[in-house]
Amino acid sequence: MGMYLLLFAGFAAGAVNKDMEEVPAYITVQLLASTLASATLVIIFGREKDHFVGTLPTGSNMQSLEVEFIITFYLMFAVCGAGTDDRKGELAGLTLGATVTINIHYLPISGASMNPARSLGPAMVFNYYKGIWINIVGPITGAITGAWFYDVIRLTDNLVMESSEINLSWED
């Protein structure tokens, strides 16, 4: 789970920081791992439709897209705080686990993909692409927005902290 979050977070962080050099490698590894994991499950359980291991939106397209955006936004925001902020505490891992646990409650609406590779790998193995665009567009836009928003808050917070350190007294 940690590597899963790390790789997708690397993609979003690269997009926000405009450091796209490593993004193709992140995407390739994610898709390869998801496809191989899905193929392994096919070998173990067979290729029956009721054994589909991917994510399927069951809400309306708009409802599922909005849910995917929001839950991935929350997850990316938490990943940025837990993984990149110097002020993180000892409970940073708990924050990530709690965020994923809360996000899983939205499984009945959108499939709770939170990562396009999590949906694309099984879709390719099972050749079943119903609503796949939702699980591509929602998580990508949610993750990039979550990383960008965290950067804005961290930058704003740093500016406030620096300005509070300025001596504003009238005495020399």
UniProtKB/TrEMBL annotation:
Topology with respect to the bilayer: Multi-pass membrane protein
Keywords: Membrane, Signal, Transmembrane, Transmembrane helix, Transport
Transmembrane feature ranges: 25-46, 132-153
Gene3D superfamilies cross-referenced by the UniProt entry: Glycerol uptake facilitator protein
Pfam entry (one): MIP
InterPro entries: Aquaporin-like, Aquaporin_transptr, MIP
Localisation per UniProt entry: Membrane
Family: Belongs to the MIP/aquaporin (TC 1.A.8) family.
Name of the protein in its database record: Aquaporin NIP1-1-like
Organism of this sequence: Olea europaea subsp. europaea
